[in-house]
Amino acid sequence: MSDLNKNKILEVKNLCTSFFTDEGEVKAVDGVNFFIEKGKTVGIVGESGSGKSITSLSILRLIQEPAGKIVNGEIVFKGENLLEKSKKEMRSIRGNNISMIFQEPMTSLNPTMTCGEQIAESIRIHQKLGRKEAKEKAIEMLKLVGIPSPEKRVKQYPFELSGGMRQRVMIAIALACNPELLIADEPTTALDVTIQAQILDLIRNLQKELGTSLMIITHDLGVVAEMCETVAVMYCGKIVEYADVKTILTNPKHPYTIGLLNSVPRHDQVYDGDLPVIKGSVPSPFNLPKGCRFVSRCPHAKDICHNQLPELKTMDDGNQVRCWIHTESWEKQEEEVASNS
Amino acid sequence: MLTFLIRRFLQIIPVMIGVTLAVFLLMHLIPGDPAQIMAGEKADEAQVEQMRENLGLNDPLHEQYLRYVGNAIQGDLGTSIRTNRPVVNEIFDSRIWITMELAFWGTVLAVVFGLIAGIISATRKYSFADVSLMVVALFGMSMPNFWLGIMLIYFFSVNLGWFPIVGWDSWKHMVLPVITIGSGGAAIIARMTRSSMLEVLDNDYIRTAHAKGVSERLVIYKHALRNALIPVVTVVGLQFGTLLGGAVITETVFAVNGIGRLVIDAIKARDFPMVQGAILVCAVAFVFVNFLVDIAYRLINKRIDLN
C-alpha cells in the first residue's frame, strides 16, 4: 500500500445511489469519487438535491430500502469495502468507527429519552459498559462538548434544551465512542448565526483533540472556508469540481462553483440592486440534460455542452473539474465557430 | 409527578358534577310524571302524590340535586322499584364485578392483539402480513358486537362444542364474550398503532438511532414504540368506555348477569333509580380509567404538563 493509501481513512469509488419511484429511477448520486485522509476535513458542497446528503447516508448505508438503493461503487473504509459488510458488521461500525451528526437538532433526538440515556446508549452498545459507567461517560461527554452542569443536563429531556444545546448533545452522542470518521450533515444550518460559530469551533477543537477525520456537508461556503482542507462541489448527483479549499475559494474553475461564490454577499463590495444569482433552477431529476447537467444555467454553454457530458478532468495542479471549457475540445469548437463565421 | 397527580385529580371534580347532574336530570327528562310511572298505572291521585312526596319531587330542583349527590356520596343510590332492594347492593353485590372482569379482559385482549398486529403491520409495510392483518382489522371494526357474538356461539359452541353457550362460571365461559367485546378495540388499536408507528419510523431520531448502531429490534421497541404509543394510549382509554357500552349487548347475547343486563332489565321494568345508579357507576368507572390513562400517558410522554 502506498503512503497515500495508508493515509486514506475513507475512499468512495464510483458511488451510485438511486431512488426508485413510480415515475422512474432517480440517480441521486451518480458516480461519485473522493477520499478523506486521516485527521483531515473534506467538505461536500452543493444546493438542495445535489446528492450531498445521500452521499453521506450511503457511506453509513442508511439509505432506506427498498425505495433507495446503492446500485454501484465501493466505499472503502480503512481498506475494507463497507458495501460488502453484513448488517451486523455495519451496526458495529455505525456510531463506533463512523459517526454522524444531522442537520436538525430539534428532531434528531428521541423526545422520550433523556439526553444521558441517548449518549449512554451508544457507549453501552459499542463499549459494552455497564449502566453506571455509561452514565458517567455520558456526563463526561456532555462536559467535553461544553454543556454547563452536565450532572443535571444528563437527566433532562431534549425538549428542555435549546437548539444549540441539542446539537451539542448530538455531537456528544457522535463522539462518545471516539470514531475515526465524523460525518456532519449541515450541522449548523438550523442554528442561529452566533450558535453556528460556537458549534463549528467545538467541532474543530474536538477534531484536533481527538484526531478525528471529518466530512462536512454544507451549502454554506463560509463553513467551507472555516473548516475544510479539500472540497467537492456537487451538482445533480455528480462532482463538478474537486480541489483544495484555497483553489475553490480563490480560483474556481467550474462555472457552477464560480456562480456559487459570486452569490455570496461580501462585506467589501457595494451592490447596486440585487445580489448576483445563478439563473434558472436545478433540472428535474427525472429529466436530466443529455450533456452537462449545468448546461441550462451556464453562461458559457455551447453545442458540445448540450450533447455530451464532460469527464471529471484532472488538471496540472491535481485538482479536478468537470467542464468542457477546460478541455481541448473547447478550443477546437471555438476555432470551428470562428472559421464558420 | 405528585403535583401532576393532585392537579389531575382535582380535574375530576367538575367532571363528576357534570355526570351527577346529567344522571339526576334523567329522572326529570323522562316523558311523563316520574311519580306516576313509579307508583304504577293503577295508582290513584293520593298515592301518586304520596310517591311524589317520598321522592322529594315537590322540592326545588337544586335541593333535589344536592340531596341526590349527598346521598350518592354516602353510598345511597335509592331503592330499586323492581326488587325493592338498595340500588347499591344490586350493583355491587356481583353485577359490576362481572362487567368489570369482562371489560378488563376485553381491554387486555384489545391492547395485546392490537399492539402486536399494529407493530407487525408497520414494520412490514405493504407485505402480505400487513395487508391481511389490516383486512382482518377492518372486519373487526365493522362487525357489530351482537352478530360477532352469535357467530362465535354458532361456530365454537354449537358446532364445535368447545365453549359453553351462556353463563359466567369458569374461564371457558369468558372466552367468547371477551373476544366479542374486545375485537373491535383490537382492530382500532391495531390500525392506530400501525399509522402511529409508521409516522414515528419516519422521524429523524429513528435515523439517529440507526446511525448510532442500534439494532433493528431496539429501534422498534425502544425508540419507536414508546413514541408511537402516545396516541394509542388515549384510544385505549376511550375504548374502555365503548367497552362498558358494549357490555350491554355482549351480556345480553351471552346471558351474562353483568351491569349491562341489569340496565336492560331495569329499563324494561321502568326501574328508574336502578338505571340512574347503574349509569352513574359506569360513568365513575370511565372517569377513573381515564385518570389512569392520563397517568400512563404522562409516564410515556414527559412533555405533558397540565399547565
Automatic annotation (TrEMBL), chain A:
How far does the signal peptide extend, from start to end residue? none
Q: Which GO terms describe its biological process?
A: peptide transport
Its membrane topology, per UniProt? Peripheral membrane protein
Q: Where in the cell is it found?
A: Cell membrane
InterPro entries from the UniProt entry: AAA+_ATPase, ABC_Ni/Peptide_Import, ABC_transporter-like_ATP-bd, ABC_transporter-like_CS, Oligopep_ABC_C, P-loop_NTPase
Per the record, GO CC terms?
plasma membrane
Query: Which UniProt keyword terms apply here?
Result: ATP-binding, Cell membrane, Membrane, Nucleotide-binding, Transport
Q: Name the principal localization, coarsely classed.
A: membrane
Q: Where is the ABC transporter domain?
A: 10-261
Q: Which SUPFAM superfamilies match?
A: P-loop containing nucleoside triphosphate hydrolases
Q: Which GO terms describe its molecular function?
A: ATP binding; ATP hydrolysis activity
Q: Name one Pfam family in it.
A: oligo_HPY
Q: PANTHER family this protein is in?
A: DIPEPTIDE TRANSPORT ATP-BINDING PROTEIN DPPD, OLIGOPEPTIDE TRANSPORT ATP-BINDING PROTEIN APPD
Family as reported in the entry's similarity comment: Belongs to the ABC transporter superfamily.
Q: Know the name of this protein?
A: Peptide ABC transporter ATP-binding protein
What organism does the UniProt record list as the source? Ureibacillus manganicus DSM 26584
Phylogenetic classification of the source organism: Bacteria, Bacillati, Bacillota, Bacilli, Bacillales
TrEMBL record, chain B:
**Keywords, ordered alphabetically:** Cell membrane, Ion transport, Membrane, Nickel, Nickel transport, Transmembrane, Transmembrane helix, Transport
Family annotation (PROSITE patterns): ABC_TM1
Which domain of life does the protein's organism represent?
Answer: Bacteria
**Per the record's keyword annotation, is Ion transport included, yes or no?**
yes
The residue ranges of the ABC transmembrane type-1 domain are 96-297
GO cellular component, alphabetical, reads: plasma membrane
Q: Where is it predominantly found?
A: membrane
Write out the transmembrane intervals.
Answer: 12-30, 102-121, 133-156, 171-190, 228-254, 274-293
Q: Which InterPro entries match?
A: BPD_transp_1_N (IPR045621), MetI-like (IPR000515), MetI-like_sf (IPR035906), Opp2B (IPR050045)
- Compartments where located: Cell membrane
Q: Name one Pfam family in it.
A: BPD_transp_1_N
**GO molecular function annotation:** nickel cation transmembrane transporter activity
Report the membrane topology from the UniProt record. Multi-pass membrane protein
| Entry's family note | Belongs to the binding-protein-dependent transport system permease family. OppBC subfamily.
Cross-referenced PANTHER family, in alphabetical order? Answer: DIPEPTIDE TRANSPORT SYSTEM PERMEASE PROTEIN DPPB-RELATED
* Subunit (UniProt): The complex is composed of two ATP-binding proteins (NikD and NikE), two transmembrane proteins (NikB and NikC) and a solute-binding protein (NikA).
Q: What's the protein name?
A: Nickel import system permease protein NikB
